[in-house]
């Protein structure tokens, strides 16, 4: 595409529209970005909620297991069985007592999944464990609890410890309680399955929840299902770690984000529409401003400059209500146009004026003759022509020099200009010492009268001409011709007739006026 | 406006909160102990008598193993003497914690009555159970 074919208006409007479209596109991208950010933030918030819920569940679990352990060791049958064991009667009775709450239940069994009860001596060496419950656990205290329990002060040893640990069968929670109250005799470990309690998080957080082990095995799924609803749900994940830092559980909840999506979509649409309206409004305002202050003045200037370029130098390029630059541009152009106009007028004048005498030259005379002849023909008027020649001008030059001759010509020109005063009359230097006077709308008598007047004025002026045999004064021979402009009387005929009359005047002895009657040839001779 | 109203209500409620009873930090003549010190004292002082100055129903829900229940209001020189044989016998009082004035009252009474080795567990039952120490029911 050629740049010359694109207007400033087209370019500006295109740029504004492209900028507007790019802005809207960026707004859409930004809206999507904010939507993702909002969902991410929602995910983080819900993950934090799950974190809090999980911590609360673990705390409750600890308290319930602690209560179970405290209650259990106060049972008489336990104390008896423990005493019997210490007296060397074997651990069968003790194991039976330890089995009891697992096999037959206990107060609070609906809120706690008890999987093992294990008994340790003061040195944390296992002395018995329930046969019932989960199988395959290593026969010693979990290393983390062991590390926490050993080396404690006497008061600290009475405090219960607890934590999540990873068993071969999966994650478990153990609470280690002192046995014997303030008179410490050993420890009892209450082992529970936290999965049972963690499922409560679904109700606490009001989210469908699936619990996975660290290995990815699904351990529990809430009853209200985990089916997604095509973008209306957000998968929220929380990693619950064991006390040694290993991942114990992966909790995956499904949050209902339909309302959030709806709110975000609504906000997005409102934002986009508002922005589009803003852009549209800005574009309209911008275009109006551009149009009023730029396109309109520029268009007017363009038209006016084109008119001026076509030759109408009278045009003034508009400067009103325009910006500073346009004003300066128009002023500069107008100044230039005025100078050109003046120069053209000067050139026209120079090309139509005889340099020596200041009257019209031969070229201008020919043009004027054509124009006046056409006008006379159109108006059915008479047109007269005087042809004047200075008598004995060669002798005048010989006597006074060419400079003197030039002075004579200039003086005669001044006389002619002063004598021929009608605006339409044309005085011209026809060549050498010969002058022509074109007299529009002038009868034969009028032309004759003017010829006499010129001759009289010249006589009155009395320019000396010592070499002239006609009284020592500069004299003129004048040929007059008049005709009604028509096809029979062409401009050339008029010139020829006037020329002929002049010739006749010369022939008859000079210093006289001869009128050539075109309509009544031969020539009528008028003596002065 | 609503915020101002809430602020006003909060301001009014503050003196009320400040008026709630708080046990003295120390009792002249009595020895303050924490839960840990109590455990050590129990191990090193077999003749220590622990008095739970709370109501009976609170006591029955859970108490420090080996403690006797004697409500401060019911405590007389006679009833205390039944539990603490001699004026030189170490005796320890506790109740629900620092918001409870029963044990401090009881300890002051015991001092008035001439008991020489009075211990006071200011943290009381709250501190004991918060630290997951052994309980009896």
Brief digest:
Chain A has 528 residues and is of the alpha+beta class. Chain A has helices at 8-73, 76-86, 92-104, 143-149, 194-198, 201-205, 258-309, 324-352, 362-379, 393-419, 444-461, 491-507; strands spanning 114-120, 126-129, 161-167, 170-179, 186-192, 209-213, 218-221, 233-241, 247-256, 382-390, 426-431, 434-440, 476-484, 513-517, 524-526.
Give structural notes.
The complex is a heterodimer of chains A (528) and B (137). Helices cover 51% and strands 19% of the residues of chain A. Chain A is α+β, with helices and mostly antiparallel strands. Chain A has a 6-stranded mixed β-sheet with strand order 11-12-10-13-14-15, sandwiched between helices. Chain A has a 5-stranded antiparallel β-sheet with strand order 2-1-5-4-3, with helices on both faces. With 137 residues, chain B is α/β, with parallel strands linked by helices. In chain B, 42% of the residues lie in helices and 15% in strands. In chain B, the strands form 2 sheets. In chain B, strands 1-6-5-2-4 form a 5-stranded parallel β-sheet. A two-stranded antiparallel ribbon of chain B has the order 3-7. At the A-B interface, helix 1 of A face helix 2 and strand 7 of B.
CATH fold description of chain B:
Oxidized Rhodanese, domain 1
Number of helices of chain A: 12
The CATH architecture of chain B would be 3-Layer(aba) Sandwich
Number of E-type strands of chain B: 7
Class of chain B in CATH? Answer: Alpha Beta
């Amino acid at each position: 595409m050629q740049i010359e074919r694109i207007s400033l208006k087209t370019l500006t409007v295109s740029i504004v529209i492209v900028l507007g479209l790019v802005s809207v596109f960026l707004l859409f991208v930004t809206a999507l970005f904010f939507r993702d950010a909002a969902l991410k933030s929602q995910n983080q918030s819900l993950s934090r909620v799950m974190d809090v819920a999980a911590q609360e569940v673990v705390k409750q679990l600890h308290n319930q297991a602690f209560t179970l352990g405290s209650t259990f060791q106060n049972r008489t049958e336990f104390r008896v069985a423990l005493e019997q064991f210490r007296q060397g009667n074997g651990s069968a009775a003790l194991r039976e007592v330890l089995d009891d709450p697992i096999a037959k239940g206990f107060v609070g069994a609906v809120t706690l999944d008890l999987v093992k009860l294990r008994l340790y001596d003061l040195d944390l060496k296992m002395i018995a464990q329930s046969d019932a419950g989960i199988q395959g656990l290593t026969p010693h205290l979990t290393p983390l609890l062991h590390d926490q329990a050993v080396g404690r002060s006497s008061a600290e040893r009475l405090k219960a410890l607890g934590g999540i640990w990873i068993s071969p069968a999966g994650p478990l929670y153990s609470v280690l309680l002192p046995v014997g109250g303030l008179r410490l005799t050993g420890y009892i470990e209450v082992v529970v399955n936290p999965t049972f309690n963690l499922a409560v998080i679904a109700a606490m957080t009001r989210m469908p929840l699936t619990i996975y082990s660290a290995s990815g095995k699904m351990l529990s799924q809430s009853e209200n299902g985990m089916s997604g609803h095509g973008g209306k749900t957000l998968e929220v994940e929380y990693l619950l770690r064991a006390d040694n830092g290993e991942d114990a559980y992966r909790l995956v909840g499904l949050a209902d984000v339909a309302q959030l999506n709806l709110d975000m979509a609504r906000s997005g649409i409102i934002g986009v529409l508002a922005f589009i309206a803003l852009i549209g409004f800005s574009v309209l305002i911008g275009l109006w401003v551009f149009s009023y202050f730029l396109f309109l003045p520029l268009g007017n200037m363009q038209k006016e400059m084109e008119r001026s370029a076509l030759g109408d130098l009278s045009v003034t390029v508009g400067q009103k209500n325009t910006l500073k630059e346009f004003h300066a541009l128009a002023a500069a152009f107008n100044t230039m146009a005025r100078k050109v106009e003046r120069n053209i007028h000067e050139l026209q004048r120079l090309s139509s004026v005889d340099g020596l005498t200041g009257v019209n030259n031969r070229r201008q005379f020919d043009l004027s003759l054509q124009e006046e002849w056409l006008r006379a023909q159109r108006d059915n008027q008479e047109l007269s022509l005087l042809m004047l020649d200075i008598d004995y001008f060669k002798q005048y030059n010989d006597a006074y020099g060419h400079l003197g001759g030039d002075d004579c010509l200039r003086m005669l020109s001044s006389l002619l200009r002063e004598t021929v005063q009608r605006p339409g009359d044309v005085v011209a230097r026809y060549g050498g010492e010969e002058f022509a006077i074109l007299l529009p709308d002038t009868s034969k008598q009028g032309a004759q009268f003017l010829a006499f007047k010129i001759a009289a004025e010249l006589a009155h002026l009395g320019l000396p001409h010592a070499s002239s045999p006609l009284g020592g004064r500069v004299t003129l021979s004048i040929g007059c011709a008049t005709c009604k402009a028509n096809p029979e009387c062409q401009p050339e005929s008029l010139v020829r007739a006037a020329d002929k009359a002049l010739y006749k005047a010369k022939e008859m002895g000079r210093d006289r006026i001869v009128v050539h009657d075109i309509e009544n040839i031969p020539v009528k001779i008028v003596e002065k | 406006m609503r915020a101002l109203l809430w602020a006003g209500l909060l301001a009014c409620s503050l003196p009320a909160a400040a008026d709630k009873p708080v046990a003295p930090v120390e009792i002249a003549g009595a020895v303050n102990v924490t839960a840990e010190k109590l455990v050590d004292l129990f191990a090193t002082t077999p003749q220590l008598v622990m008095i739970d100055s709370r109501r009976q129903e609170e006591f029955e829900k859970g108490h420090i193993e080996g403690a006797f229940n004697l409500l401060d209001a019911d405590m007389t020189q006679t009833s205390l003497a039944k539990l603490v044989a001699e004026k030189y016998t170490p005796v320890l009082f506790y109740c629900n914690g620092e918001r409870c004035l029963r044990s401090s009252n009881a300890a002051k009474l015991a001092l008035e009555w001439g008991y020489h080795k009075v211990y006071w567990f200011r943290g009381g039952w709250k501190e004991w159970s918060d630290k997951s120490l052994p309980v009896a029911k």
